[in-house]
Amino acid sequence: MMPRMTVASGDLDIVSHGAAQTGRLGARLGALCTGGEVFLLDGELGAGKTVLAKGIAEGLGVDGPVTSPTFALIHEYAGRLPMAHVDLYRLDGEAAAISTGVEDYLRTDGVTVVEWSTRAPDLFGPDWVRVSLSHVSETKRGVRVSSMGRRSRALVARFSREAFGIASE
Ligand SMILES: Nc1ncnc2c1ncn2[C@@H]1O[C@H](COP(=O)(O)OP(=O)(O)OP(=O)(O)O)[C@@H](O)[C@H]1O
Ligand SMILES: [Mg+2]
Q1: Looking at residue 2, what is its pLDDT?
Q2: pLDDT over threshold 70, residue 101
Q3: Which residues have a Cβ under 8 Å from the Cβ of 103 and sit 6 or more positions away?
Q4: Closest to 25 in 3D by CA, of 65, 58, 73
Q5: Fewer CB under 10 Å: which end of the chain, C or N?
Q6: Which residues form the pocket of ligand 1, taking CB atoms under 6 Å from any ligand atom?
Q7: Which domains are present in the chain?
Q8: Whose CA is nearest to atom 3 of ligand 1?
Q9: How confident is the model at residue 6 (pLDDT cuts 50, 70, 90)?
Q10: CA angle centred on 154, ends 98 and 94, rounded to 5°
């Protein structure tokens, strides 16, 4: 098995100044998807994971309301690519997460967006974009974007270039 690589070189650290801005970051990420992407959205309650997920859905051309799947665990949406929005908050461990069927989505060419992925850290394959959100103030959030795997690293590099005009690699 390959050793886990550090992801620090391509990491991005951003401050979002409001929910709308976090949504736009998500929309940019969604617009860059070509199918098969996995987004792991982490951070405490109210950090903005669902706001970001809604933005990704918008970037994927999903029409209509995107609501938090806290109780349903998975919501599916049809956009330019299919999107599965997963929330593992209520789950504890990989076995519990597998019972939701989230694994099936990870094998498809759709886009999988997972809130609280840290509840089942071993569930995800070697290619993902992680967005870690943290409270800075009532309206500001720290947004750290890291990635693992070729596809995701390329997506984040492109996101950096297009959103900020910087090369992250
Ligand atoms: N810069 C910001 N980015 C994102 N959300 C923000 C920001 N500033 C304020 N907010 C507010 O913070 C809240 C974030 O809620 P959201 O449901 O997205 O959090 P969450 O991380 O999904 O929480 P949970 O763990 O409960 O699912 C919203 O009410 C949003 O309007
Ligand atoms: Mg949420």
Answers
A1: 42
A2: yes
A3: 97, 123
A4: 58
A5: N
A6: 16, 18-19, 21-22, 43, 45-51, 68, 89, 115, 139-141
A7: 12-164 (3.40.50.300)
A8: 19
A9: very low
A10: 15
